[in-house]
Write a structure and sequence with these properties.
There is one protein chain. Helix content is about 30%, strand content about 25%. It has eleven helices and 14 strands. It has a five-stranded antiparallel β-sheet with strand order 4-5-10-6-7. A four-stranded antiparallel β-sheet has the order 11-12-13-14. A three-stranded parallel β-sheet has the order 1-3-2, with helices on one face. Helix 10 runs antiparallel to helix 11. The radius of gyration is 19 Å and the shape is globular. About 50% of the residues are buried. The protein binds flavin-adenine dinucleotide.
Length: about 290
């Protein structure tokens, strides 16, 4: 099928993009086009106007500042995957990026586009929620931001308002020396969307005791969820305590059924993957000190 007719605009600034968006309910932003273009082709989306933000300099680039890594919204997923700052300072994002689609989709798809698209199975939103990232927004009234936890409100549904654009994602950098990441996902084929995904990040002290821990699951409910396993802080994070913490935390999980998997399957598998992700993160943290750690 071919898309329904639309106008195409390439604004010269972010302020212009927001003004165009605010002034036209039928307008839609386009970044990498990896989700939107197939939707246009199938006529699942029929915007009257496409506002192309891909080349806006304000949205590009990756920088580290004040205990965080700021990833510009139009940063290509493939660029983020190769970036040394992300590898050193946001290891969970580096770990999951190879699981986002396929090399050709990552060459075009953007980090901000994945966040704005808010697929409950998508890996980048999972990292944002698990690490407590901040979603930075450009609006007609200037910049603002909100925690990832408040940004994702349902399947393909975010708290973004009319005339607003995701400008960047602010990922916190953990200040510890021994940090490890664990990630597992179950999907029909490698790099397809996950039925269930679990991501964990663990910081250990010199004696192998847990200093900090973050655990999240994706694909299980209508948005990615961070699970509270803070009871593991101060422990050696052995397998029995990991299982106990995950079982207690997973009571909060509201699993959903679809044609791919039942809620019962998702719930059971998410518990197993969460335990494995925590164990893998612990083992990785114990194995090597973080490069360039403060
Ligand atoms: C074959 C295939 C497999 C895939 N597999 C996976 C997978 O396993 N995991 C995964 O996570 N993703 C997967 N994807 C989707 C991923 O590739 C997309 O990159 C991502 O979902 C959207 O990013 P984009 O930059 O292409 O956004 P676009 O397609 O350009 O836009 C997507 C939506 O976000 C909005 N938008 C874009 N940028 C902004 C912004 N800065 N502010 C506000 N709104 C914005 C658009 O208006 C649109 O509604 C797959 C895609 C394909 C085609």
């Amino acid at each position: 099928m071919k898309p329904a007719p639309f106008d195409y605009v390439r604004p010269g600034s972010l302020a212009e993009a927001c003004a165009l968006l605010a002034g036209d309910e039928d307008a839609r932003l386009i970044a990498g086009g990896q989700t939107l273009v197939p939707m246009l082709a199938m006529r699942l989306a029929r915007p009257a106007k496409l506002i192309d933000i891909l080349r806006l300099p304000e949205l590009a680039g990756i920088r580290e500042e004040a205990g965080a890594v700021i990833v510009g919204a139009t940063t290509r997923q493939a660029q983020a995957e190769r970036d040394p700052v992300i590898r050193a300072s946001v290891p969970m994002l580096a770990r999951v990026l190879p699981w986002v689609g396929h090399p050709p989709t990552r060459n075009r798809g953007t980090v901000g586009g994945s966040i704005a698209n808010a697929d409950p199975s998508a890996e980048i939103p999972l990292v944002a929620v698990t690490l407590g990232a901040e979603i930075m927004l450009a609006t007609t009234d200037g910049p603002t931001s909100m925690p990832a936890d408040d940004f994702f409100i349902g399947p393909m549904l975010t708290a973004i308002g009319q005339g607003e654009c995701v400008s960047a994602i602010r990922f916190p950098v953990w200040p510890h020396k021994h940090i490890g990441v664990g990630f597992f996902e179950i999907s029909a084929r490698k790099s397809d969307f996950a039925f269930v995904a679990a991501a964990a990040q663990v910081a250990l002290d010199e004696e192998g005791r847990c200093l900090d821990v973050a655990l999240g699951v994706g694909g299980v409910g209508d948005r990615p969820l961070r699970l509270d396993v803070s009871s593991l802080v101060g422990t050696k994070l052995d397998s029995a305590s990991a299982a106990e913490a995950v079982n207690a935390a997973s009571v909060e999980l509201d699993a959903s059924s679809d044609l791919h998997a039942s809620a019962a399957y998702r719930r059971r598998v998410s518990v197993v993957l969460c335990i494995r992700a925590l164990e893998q993160a612990r083992d990785n943290a114990a194995a090597k000190p973080k490069k360039g750690a403060r």
